[in-house]
Amino acid sequence: MKINVIGSGIAGLTAALTLAKNGHQVEVFEQFNRIGGVTGGMEAEGFEWDYGQLLVEGFGKDEPVGTILNELGVLEKIDLVPDEREYVFPDFKIRVPEAYAGTLWRMDFLKKQFPEEAAGLDAYWKDYVRFTRLVTLGGRMEKEGLTTRIAFYLALLHFLPRLNWSAEKLLSHYFKSEKLKCVFMSILADFFTPPSKFPGLGIFTLNSEITFEKRMPPQLGKNAVMVPSYSIIGGAKKLINAMAEGIEKCGGKLHSNCAVQKIIVKDGKACGVVDQDGKVHECDVVVASGGAKETFTKLLPAGSLPEGYLEKVTSIPLMGSVFMIQLGLDYDPSDVLHTVCTYFYGSYDIEGEVNRAQAGIYHEGKAGFAVHFPSLRSPGMAPRGKHAMTIYTICPDQLASGDWETKKQKYADILLDYAEQRLPGLRSHIVVQRILSPVELRRLTHLDHHAFGGIAPMMKSWKVPHKTPVDNLWFIGAQSESGGGVNSLLPASYKTAKKILEAG
After folding, report:
1. pLDDT of 191
2. For 28, 29, 250, 488, which has the most beta carbons within 10 A of its beta carbon?
């Protein structure tokens, strides 16, 4: 088959490489001037930064994502180093102990911090173990048959009353402390989803305790796989480059600065694309990644979709954007930043902050920000004796008042003020500074709405399926049913490519 892939982000490249390795003729079309999309990062004056993929999980050879990368011949081409995230709240911080502190060190730490919540933490952990077993059984059902299927449904019985619970309701079931709830739902700020609208059982997935541990907790036994966090040495572009090389080695073609203007549909089947120069590229299958609204409303001919489908596409909830400052520094901040990725929270009100952001109100960094310090593990991402750093906050794609272009310098100054409270003397060591507002990110991605992470995981919201109503047209990426993040996108794109192969 000849297959055209629109978009060279992690989703598009994974699908393209899987299809190329299986002997098919693949072409990838990227509208930006280089392969990788927002995963590719940027460079300036000898410094390198990633746009957003800070750490990856499960990339080890026998781990979930690593198994796929190994099959695709990519894993051997990238270097990984184990890493962790640090979470700094107004009253305390959570950091993986340097010395081994037991398999349940995070639960033990939280019990010391919130002794009145010890019973609730025990109940939460017990249900976390049950949920992990449920997920494991679900993954085995197709291969292992009736016995595993029965075990799955028996395990599901415990959670049936909670299937429609929100994250707020689930955590209120275990805890009274708003601060402790925030520990488990703080990441929702990155998902741009208020706890009252996020699926409750998703909290167990977001807080995968195995990512915090250095050894397997015995309670999980065979019902879990260790998924440690890693930094990619040299940044996410190393992963992108390895995939691109693999595609070309298999005879595939990668086109940058080549935007697709139209998907050709004949007799209800996708059969090619038209690029920005009007050139027709015929094919048997089209795989589109990127913006859902842009794909289905701008690239497809009118009348290609069933009635009501476009309304569903345009109604999907998207995440907000980010305000980002990329810095080149002439000093080493590792006395304060102990790991590559540190989250600084200024508020425990996740619900309020997300709702205000959705209303177009930017917190300016007061509610919190993240710091990515890639050169701590990858010295090559900065000139000798210097370091690269990214500071970012979630923010509205569009401001309720004013615009990003006129306010971005002001907002950068304010964000640096907050950062300097955590990193004393930061300003005096800045030698390079790049400011990226949602405006720049929209230009980079060619999206009408820049969504940092794609679709927002809201309760009962419709998700765009990978298999579209148009024959031979498949949709992948952060705005598809898989959602965003490398650990979701990569396996989902791989599986979608396998389904394309099965469909023939």
Report:
1. 65
2. 28
